[in-house]
Amino acid sequence: MQRKKIHPHKYSLWIAMGSITMMFIGFTSAYVVKRSQANWLAFELPHIFWLSTAVILTSSVTIHLALKQFKERNMQRYKQLITLTALLGVVFAVCQWLGFSQMKSEGLPLSGPVSASFIYVIVGVHILHVLGGVVALLVMFFRAYRTRVRSYSAVPIEVAATYWHFVDILWIYLLVFLSIAR
Amino acid sequence: MSNEATLHSQQEVMHGAGAHDHHDHEHHDSFISKYVFSMDHKMIAKQFLITGIIWAIIGAFFSVLFRLQLGYPDATFPWLESILGHWAKGGRITPEAYYALVTMHGTILVFFVLTAGLSGTFSNLLIPLQVGARDMASPFMNCLSYWFFFLASLVMMASLFVQTGPASGGWTMYPPLSALGDASIGSKIGVDLWLTSMALFVVSQLLGGLNYISTILNMRTKGMSMTKMPLTIWSFFFTAVLGVLSFPVLLSGFILLLMDRHAGTSFYLSDIFIAGKALANEGGSAILYQHLFWFLGHPEVYIIILPAMGMVSEVLAVNSRKPIFGYLAMIGSLFAICILAFLVWAHHMFVTGLNPFLGAFFVLLTLLIAVPSAIKVFNWITTIWKGNIRFTPASLFSIGFVSTFISGGLTGIWLGNSSIDIHLHDTYFVIAHFHIVMGVSAFFGMFAAIYHWFPKMYGRFMNNTLGYIHFWITLVGAYLIFWPMHYEGMAGMPRRYFDYSSWTSFNQFEGLNQFISFVVIIVFATQLLFVFNFFYSIFKGRKLTTMNPWKATSLEWTTPINPGHGNWPGEIPEVHRWAYDYSKDGRDFIPQTEPIGPNESAH
């Protein structure tokens, strides 16, 4: 134990992120295989996806600030910032959902052409991962109000923040991928 | 240090307040927290093992049922109707029941027994004990891992009892058969339950795998460098890496399949006619599923066999009283297998219309696996060569493992060639190959490990005489069952058929099929003997009197006979040497905890 070791929970998170990445690699490679076959219908992504991108990028900034405030023990600011982050996460999910309805109204339902079905599934599974992060933030939020046990360890919030940045980057990857490989 | 920190933080999470001092004092656990929602890795290991044994009995019993049909297609067994009801009208299994039985036999044994029951049990038991940790990196996640597996088991079990029966399109669940409820009776709710159960199973495997990796990398005791670890730990490590990287891809495949079933999408479906009517689905590709499935499916066979390899290496070294031969080569070959595992999946798809040019690469990569496999086999043989072998049931099963791994592995070279595969694919040759190399071998590794580490789990020994009977009948029986299948396969007899009696070409195998089925029943009965031995010995086995009954070097034998939660009552011992100092400098064995002497060189 002489050398400084990374906390096991953080380590587990990194492996989990690798695992989630593999899942999306599975989806996107299925997409690539399918795209090279006949009858592939190309269409433009809903424009609201760009707004949701801005939202999730902002939320990455707020959670970063939240972590900073936690380390400086400004608990009031910390609570405000994680609430804001969680809210932005929900707004992101709503924006994606609006994108779905837009696609539907343009004649691209889930059961429509396979290129559209892929968007629903890939974006949908990503939304679930963001909402998982929202749940984690809610847990952090209630923990911050606990009076009986006070936790001074920054590990849980660091884990949550890393995960949050991860789903953010994952979305950027998906957006770029889905825009280029149409 | 970090060990203590994790246990504490975990307890804080679970109990809310109050940090217990976990070592030196006994926990005052309730029945629930000790035996049910336990966070002790040793208890979780036992939970995995016993659940696995129950599944193994069910899965093996299914094979007895369908072997009855294959061996005695014209006979009727009235007792079958009393247990299977309308699935065996008049005492003869119906075709639908036959397909349900083979599908469930495959699913249960591949996933629930040889994945969860094997690596779930022994990764949990041995990783903390052999690297010198108080528990897993996250005991809570470890507990969740078991309970997700339990949920998956419940759902799969429930699917056996629904009116339309369980999934019956084969354990690989290929679309379109699995994607369309109208395709067959076994494609209805059975498939939904199957997919739900497997999704829960994947979650369980990921939670477990995360823990195994971070425990091995982070929580080793002082002095336990990576190259001082026993080979068991290396094999669990690579197993977990394979699982964490490949199971999520399987999950993506399942999500798309579920969408095709219920949301009207066409990922895998195109131009399908059911009962003369064309379906609306267009633009899908059934082969896409096969790519996603086998990207997991192939690493999955190494997920099954690597833990067995690691444990066999350990058992052979201990019982030959010799250091393992080629320790670094063993690690290197595990690593090579781990990498190649991801690059060979299309050899399951040579006859799907795969581009033959692409096929050539997959042939080459597949044949390359023979190199690390051969390195391992030579190293096991040279380990026992001129050893002072103790023929315990564990070491017999390990030697049996090497035997079946060779004979099953060699036929893999045949099947790995795409040209020979055109003749042999989907025949009994394939069944013989994968049952010997993956089924029987993995079971032998598992039996070896159970006999070897039973004293650590329960503080008692299993009965040796029953162990010897178990070994010899199983070894001879396994060869008698699967060896003849090679000939059937070479003659072109296809797998998955319900009844061959109207097929003149294969009438010559009537007697052989009866013989195989007869041996299956004997071998199955012998496994029940093992189960009896296992449960009887938990309560009535000969008690352990010393901490280190096998005179082994590794850390698990430095714990008390019945270790509490936290494993070592005092400090965790420090490690000074590798795990294989047997017959060194005139001494029978030197434990890992003993410092290197002044006139001694490390290995």
Question: How does this model look, in words?
Answer:
The complex is a heterodimer of chains A (182) and B (603). Chain A has 182 residues and is mostly helical. Chain A is 77% helix and 0% strand. The longest helix of chain A is centred in the middle third of the chain and has 31 residues, at 75-105. With 603 residues, chain B is mostly helical. In chain B, 62% of the residues lie in helices and 2% in strands. Chain B has 17 helices and 4 strands. Chain B has helices spanning 2-15, 31-36, 41-71, 78-84, 95-131, 139-159, 189-218, 231-262, 286-320, 327-341, 356-368, 370-384, 393-415, 418-424, 428-458, 464-490, 510-540; strands spanning 273-274, 277-278, 582-584, 587-589. Chain B has a two-stranded antiparallel sheet. Chain B has a two-stranded antiparallel sheet with strand order 3-4. In chain B, strand 3 (582-584) and strand 4 form a beta hairpin. In chain B, helix 5 (95-131) runs parallel beside helix 7 (189-218), helix 7 (189-218) packs antiparallel against helix 8 and helix 9 (286-320) runs antiparallel to helix 10. Chain B is globular and about 85 Å long. Residues 5-25 of chain B have low confidence and may be disordered. Chains A and B meet through helix 1 and helix 4 of A and helix 1, helix 7, helix 8 and helix 9 of B.
Q: Main traits of this protein?
A:
heterodimer; A: about 180 residues; mainly alpha; 5 helices; about 0% strand; B: mainly alpha; two-stranded antiparallel sheet; 17 helices; about 60% helix
